[in-house]
Design a protein that fits this description.
It is a single chain. The chain is an alpha+beta fold. Among the domains are: about 60-125; about 130-215, Roll (PH-domain like), CATH 2.30.29. It has 6 helices and 6 strands. The strands form 2 sheets. The chain has a 3-stranded antiparallel β-sheet with strand order 1-2-3. The protein has a 3-stranded antiparallel β-sheet with strand order 4-5-6, covered by helices on one side. The chain is elongated, with a radius of gyration of 33 Å. The N and C termini lie far apart (about 95 Å). About 15% of the residues are buried. This is Membrane protein YdbS with pleckstrin-like domain.
């Protein structure tokens, strides 16, 4: 009589999804800390904006150049009138409209060039920083002006748009502060969406500062 065939070895149990779940959960809990939300994000504050220098929209240079061009046109017209009057009253100029217009045109071009250079340099110097306790501004061409506005002094914040700003797609943020007259600060050269976002963020930080100061 032949021996009975050997029985096949028992198959090892295949792990199920339920068996691996605790290990996955533990790996997730002990994973990279960067995968977990930070305290600033949990508090609703965009940490990428805090303490980060921000520039204005590049279109603001065109706004400043157009403003300076309007002023240059007024100054050029005054120079034309003065040159014509001086030419008529004295022999220094021939008293013709053409000569007076030449003088006024030269003055106009000079002030336009000055306005263009000023707009470029002012744009490079303009910078604002949203800090945890204050709004910091830095700007100026010949004279550098730096302003720190503590949130505890902020009364309210507005956005405004002039006809020229609406044409160029720009907006200005105005921060009204408590204190002496003229202490209000403005942040020009913002897009409407950026101005609205910045307004909401500053209002939230102001509210948080008032609550912390009250405590």
């Amino acid at each position: 009589m032949s021996d009975p065939p050997d029985e096949p070895p028992a198959a090892e149990p295949t792990p199920t999804a339920d068996d691996s779940a605790p290990d996955d959960a533990a790996a997730s809990a002990d994973g990279d800390p960067s995968d977990q939300p930070s305290v600033a994000a949990a508090a609703g504050i965009d940490e990428a904006v805090l303490d980060t220098p921000r520039e204005l929209a590049s279109t603001v240079r065109l706004q400043w150049i157009l403003r300076s061009t309007i002023g240059a046109a007024v100054i050029g017209a005054l120079a034309t009138a003065i040159a014509y009057g001086v030419g008529v009253a004295t022999s220094f100029l021939d008293g013709s409209i053409r000569t007076a217009a030449t003088v006024g045109g030269a003055v106009f071009v000079l002030f336009v060039l000055i306005g263009v250079v000023r707009a470029v340099l002012l744009y490079r110097s303009w910078m604002y920083v949203v800090r945890a306790d204050s709004l910091f501004l830095s700007r100026g061409v010949l004279t550098r002006v730096q302003t720190a506005v503590p949130y505890v002094r902020v009364q309210h914040i507005d956005t405004r748009r002039s006809p020229l700003e609406r044409l160029l797609g720009l907006s200005t943020l105005v921060v009204y502060t408590a204190g002496s007259r003229g202490a209000d600060v403005t942040v020009p050269g913002l897009t409407p969406d950026r101005a609205a976002t910045l307004q909401r963020r500053l209002e939230r930080l102001t509210t948080e500062s008032e609550g912390a100061d009250a405590v």
